[in-house]
Design brief:
This protein has four helices and four strands; from the N terminus they run αββββααα. The chain is of the alpha+beta class. A hairpin with a 5-residue loop joins strand 1 and strand 2. Keywords: ATP-binding, Nucleotide-binding, Transferase, Ubl conjugation pathway.
Length: about 140
């Protein structure tokens, strides 16, 4: 079942306008690589953020595991690249696709969620001193992305 779904998603992604994003399966169909550009107007603008997507063998019935390879200063992404977003946890649905997940992660860069932070200190800074937060995020983007 998983391989059938993965092949369907590969075909569907080839039909999508990805903009500046990339999404591709590796030789191991359960390991994908993706990248999203930092959106214009965000402190991540100009950066390219790479990630690995690990699909479980019962995909799409279980959510993929996403790991950011590129370091990023973000309240919902840990310093080790782990991601905190509801669609990868309790809001996962088999109706979601890898494309939709990567699109959601791209949106997360523009619109972080301080109510569910993986890094509380960054969320606190974002709420209390957004200018300082954005300066640090911009600096990390220049350094790592």
């Amino acid at each position: 079942m998983a391989l059938k779904r993965i092949h369907k998603e590969i075909a569907d992604i080839r039909k999508e306008d990805l903009g500046g994003m990339t999404i591709e399966a590796t030789d191991n169909l359960f390991l994908w690589k993706a990248s999203v550009p930092g959106q214009e107007g965000s402190p991540y603008e100009g950066g390219l953020f790479r990630m690995e997507i690990h699909l479980p063998h019962d995909y799409p019935f279980s959510a993929p595991k996403i790991h950011f390879v590129t370091r990023i200063y973000h309240m919902n992404i840990s310093d080790r690249g782990a991601v905190c977003i509801d669609i990868l946890k309790n809001q996962w649905s088999p109706a979601l696709s890898i494309f939709k997940v990567v699109l959601s992660l791209s949106s997360l860069l523009m619109d972080p969620n301080p109510q569910d932070p993986l890094v509380p200190s960054i969320a606190t800074e974002y709420v209390r001193n957004k200018k300082q937060h954005d300066n640090t995020a911009r600096h990390w983007t220049e350094l790592y992305a």
